[in-house]
Amino acid sequence: MLKLLRSRLLQTVLLFTVALATIGAGDTTAKFSSLGHKMVCTCGCGQILLECNHVGCPNSDGMIRELRTQVAGGGTDTSIFNFFVAKYGPTVLAAPIRGGFDNAAWIVPIAVFVLALAGTAVLIRRWKGRHMIAAAVAPGMAFSGTAGDSMRQRIRRETEF
């Protein structure tokens, strides 16, 4: 009975070991796919690295091999991205890494758009307000009395040929 229990325990441990190894292998494939879809091929085609389909691409095969090596080495996502950025430049990333100066790449365009929209709204309100004030002044009311007559005569003198 003790021998059977020991055998079952050993089988269970072996089963869990194989299961954990298999889960880890599937995880690297998922990680490889996830990272490969967050990078751009540097050949100039502008396509996602794992989807670069242009025939005879000089860069994608080497980059994919490097990505497989980095993922198999167990690096974190950030360290793998940093490796590729150091080697190929920041254009290799399909989207900037969150943190540091890269946040500016996300925040500044949105902030500029919102400020431009607010500035346009303020400008339209001011123009609309001026139009309302000008419409409130009745025609002929602006030049009334002797000051208005002298102004009209001055304008006529200055605009004659």
Largest sheet: none
* Count of DSSP H/I helices: 5
Architecture per CATH nomenclature, i.e. the level-2 architecture of the largest domain: Orthogonal Bundle
Radius of gyration: 36 Å
Structural class: mainly alpha
CATH-assigned fold name of the largest domain:
Helicase, Ruva Protein, domain 3
Q: How many strand units?
A: 0
Q: How would you describe the overall organization of this protein?
A:
The chain contains 5 helices and no strands. It has about 160 residues and is mostly helical. The mean pLDDT is about 80. It has 2 domains: about 1-95, Helicase, Ruva Protein, domain 3 (Orthogonal Bundle); about 105-160.
Features:
2 domains, Helicase, Ruva Protein, domain 3, 161 residues, mainly alpha
Walk me through the topology.
Blueprint: H1 2-36, H2 60-72, H3 77-88, H4 102-136, H5 145-159
Helix pairs in contact: 1-2
Care to give the gist of this entry?
Helices cover 68% and strands 0% of the residues. It has helices at residues 2-36, 60-72, 77-88, 102-136, 145-159.
